Amino acid sequence: MDKTMTMKDAIASFVHDGDTVSLEGFTHLIPTAAGHEIIRQGRRNLTVVRMTADIVVDQLLAGGCVTKLVSSFVGNSSAGSLGELRRRIETADPEPLEFEEYSHYGMICRYLAGAQRLPFHPLRSYAGSDLPSVNPGIRKVTSPYPGPDGATEEIYVVPPVNPDVTIVHAQRADRSGNTQVWGLTGVQAEAVYAAKKAVVVVEEIVEDEVVRSDPNRTVIPSHAVHAVVACPRGAHPSFAQGYYDRDNAFYRSWSHISKDPARLRDWMAEWVYGTRDHAEYVAKQGEEFWAGLAVGEAMSLPVNYGRRL
Q: pLDDT tens for residues 176-199?
């Protein structure tokens, strides 16, 4: 089945006002272009679930799309702060943001519970943490099995998360949605399986034979995918392993842009609202800019999977 769609149509079809939307991609493959299209389409009252809330979340907030954030990390990826997010949490300016905080592993466990349709997922790492005191969703249950010392054990659990839609970025997919990722794989697969619907955005759509020639890179299979969007350079300013590098200059500049509301509005007006789609955003940057983010080859050796003679 051909599941390819334009970004505009995919967002219009699968992201609705009031939805819970997961945007996943860890360090690279961040679905920035999808976030920009959500802003252009004026979605409102979204709950955004993102393990590492970063620039794309700051931009969605500036676009007035988000009323609640569920996350384990908030920041501009070692390059500074998120001005819009800080204003909303610290001073409710221009309006408050509901923030539900977990640890990284807590978020992974939530996705695992959601993907497996479990009522909760146990973990030990909240012992001694202040997080349970600020998040009532982190609770304790009595284990049905004895602890290491043979005594009854109370263990922390987190609830499942089942987004209305998960959007992830990846390197490539075929037209039916078999999606391949290499480098950091993050929690894309878990987030997709946890969701009711899934949109995969890729650098390129390839023929079935390409996917079949290297099946172990298929992190997300087609049966879990509802739409495939081809969007080259759609993870900028993050990187896509093997396609382009991280735009470190932009990360460094974002703290200065986002801390000034007027400057942030101007940036959004030029780069999000002022572009019809991500292709226009890419063209506006210019080829010289993209040449500066080009990467050289670091090829993986072929593997002999073998086949029956």
A: 999 999 999 999 999 999 999 999
CA distance 79 to 254: 8
In this structure, is the dihedral angle defined by the CA atoms of residues 62, 64, 67 and 70, taken in order, positive or negative?
A: negative
Contact between 238 and 28 (Cβ < 8 Å):
yes
pLDDT tens readout for residues 94-147 = 999 999 999 999 999 999 999 999 999 999 989 889 999 999 999 999 999 999
Query: Which residue is it, tokens 């599941």?
Result: 3
Cis ω for the linkage preceding 215 (within 30 of 0):
no
Model confidence at 307, in pLDDT bands (50, 70, 90)?
A: confident
Q: Between β-strands 46-49 and 197-205, what pairing exists: parallel, antiparallel or unpaired?
A: unpaired
**What is the C-alpha separation between 79 and 189, in angstroms, rounded?**
27
Residue pLDDT, tens place only, 219-234 = 999 999 999 999 999 9
- Give the tokens for residue 48: 């955004």
Token pair belonging to 24: 């996943």
